[in-house]
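2024-03-11 09:14:02 INFO receiving multi-entity request
2024-03-11 09:14:02 INFO entity count = two
2024-03-11 09:14:03 INFO echoing inputs for audit
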Amino acid sequence: MDTPTLLTHLETRGRALTLPRGGTLCWDDADLHRAAYTDDPEGYALLGLAPGVQPWQRARVLLQLLAASQAGLDDPTRHTLARTARVLTLALPPACVITVLLSLRRLRANHKHTTRTALRFVLEHPQADQLIAARRPALLDCFEHALGKATARGCARRIADGDTGSDYLQRRLLRFLTAPQAALSRVTALYGTGTRQQGTAVEHGPALTIDTVRERPRTVTATNRGDIAATLVHLYRGGPAEDLYVALGDQIGAAAAAFPRFEGTLALVVDASASMRGHGDREWALLSQAAALRMVLSEVCARLEVIEVGGEERAPRGATDLAMGVLDALGTGPDLVAVVSDGYENLFPGDLARVVATLPRAGVTTPVVFCHALFTGSDDLTLRRPAPALPQRGFWHQDDFAELLPWMFGHCAAGAPWLRASLHTRLDLLDRRADRLTAPSRPAA
Amino acid sequence: MSDLTTLDTLVPGPLSLAGHRLGTPQRAGALTMVPISGPAYPGIVPPRSGLKLTRVAGYGRVELSNGADRGVAIVPLHIGYVQDAAQNHALCRSAFLAAGQRLMCEDACCVQESQGGYLTERDQWFFILPLELRARALELRGVSDYGKLWRDIADLNRGHGLPRRGHLEQILSRRRGLLTQYQSRLEPQPGQLGALFFIEDRFAGLELAPDPLYFTEIWAALVCFAYGVAAWHADPARDAERQPPPEPFEATGLGELRAALDRDRAARIARIADRIAAVPTGPVTVQEEERYLRLRLSTVTGTHLAGQIVTDGDRAVYASLFARP
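2024-03-11 09:21:47 INFO inference complete, emitting structure
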């Protein structure tokens, strides 16, 4: 599985899955998803949870997980896949999940894990009652596909007759559920004749928030780009050093604690030229963010080699020689080289691009990535792409590190265990929150 | 690089550049900047922190003041101000202002041909007239006619594919986002107090400040507006999508790659040195304009270049010399 390519695809291709009435499922990138799943089912599933993945790509991951057979997979992998699928059914807009479940019907895909996931979505989703009221025919189709039409209707008939736990019901329906009693009334509702509640549940958002919603300030300043950068700006401006250093240590520790340890070697080329200092209202904006990234990485990485070009972090000056910086970085024998720069290559623009173009013929296979230090999330980078061939990603806020680091480490082999550990931690967290969402309410004392 | 002897032949007469040295060139598109370092001349008030636009007393009349407690200010040649709620003007000449002194410049050029072009800016900012206008502006020094540069501005706009109006803001403001990037695409070096500018390999100008602080304060106005406008217009590769793919070096290992990069850079620097040596020379006339104690402000006019210089004896203190069209 080409992790960087797949991750970029998941983060940038947001086109919806469509299921025309009577037509075939429109899934333009099915081959990519299928190949990635075949290559590494667990890694593929976890990647669907990576920060920043588009919702419709997560829907595709869910579809792939539910459509594919799990024959030959070991139990831990099956368990991870099942948890991921459940998280996705709660973290996606219900309309997306319904499209996925109806797609499975169209694909005639059904497995035990498919049945379990579909039934739990239809009958145990926190908004199940409203969903059934709004999308009853579609959910009935999903329910009958999951169980088989005859079995589904048999279960419904028995429930309507007062059966709450017969052996038949247990074996065919209840064993897939975690809150069987709450589900029985919903099965009845599925086969009821209630009128549709127009426009209610369809408008519902996801029950589970998978990516933290970030509010963008109306005006981005040098000090509203995350705590670490804000503290650094005050230090650079000559603020009270002792208090600021204490706070800085805490802030870096808190930020780094969100990430597992990277056991490889990262060579970081840090642009410390005059333009990184900036001027006017935005003085120190870029350098403080770059320094914040460097400081967090110094906590996360087992070995971090920092190559400064231009001046120094505390005294940025002079011109940017990114090409020589990358060569120096490669000389340290790293697993990954990451360039952090505003993208203005001053000495001889084009040198970095030429060096990058030469690396394969020079026998260098170490991946090099470009991390754009941005003023805001929407900088014009037209004149700031010194090596368009390099994988690149921008960051302007400390919160961006949550997406930046998986993207960076995803480019090197040493990053694979880091990425897996990071996403496992994320799955555990989301799974716990999903448990709380779907836990049956306790009877009143 | 070598001592700046080549420029001694470029600018003969009272301007001695002894002790000044060239640094490693930088490029941004069609614009090449060769840093100049050298001995600082202390006591000159820099233009951003010391020199203020006090008022615009009607069309063509601009009052400047030196707000510093001590030190003489050298008004940068062809400085122009953009301010809120007033017509924007540029000066045709340089000048001396003693500490605390005010100076009403009666021969300023209005750079907005008609009303409706006011710029709303939170902060007053200044520019240097684009290279294409400088020779004409210098010729018009002493001429009290606020609209004297409108036709040349209109021609400049037309050359840039803009409406033929005497509004310099059509370029400076509408393209400000692109032009101001030159101050980051090219970055002054520590201790730098001057620069040579080339556009598409042709000599465009020589700028020399009394000290690094003065140069830092005037850097953006020079690189973004005085030379950036022409450089942007001349840049054949300003459309990033049309950039040719990078040509790999001949190297089979990291060491060879580093050596190849070094060789290539050395060759490019040598070519730039050749261009400096090839700058056309010729006789120039030097006309003294003002005095302040030992300082002399003179206008330099030749077939290949023009501008103004400030000297102390034979020592160069300030220079703004540009290629004539």
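2024-03-11 09:21:48 INFO post-check: Residues 227-413 of chain A form a domain with the Rossmann fold fold (CATH 3.40.50.2300).
2024-03-11 09:21:48 INFO post-check: The mean pLDDT of chain A is 92.
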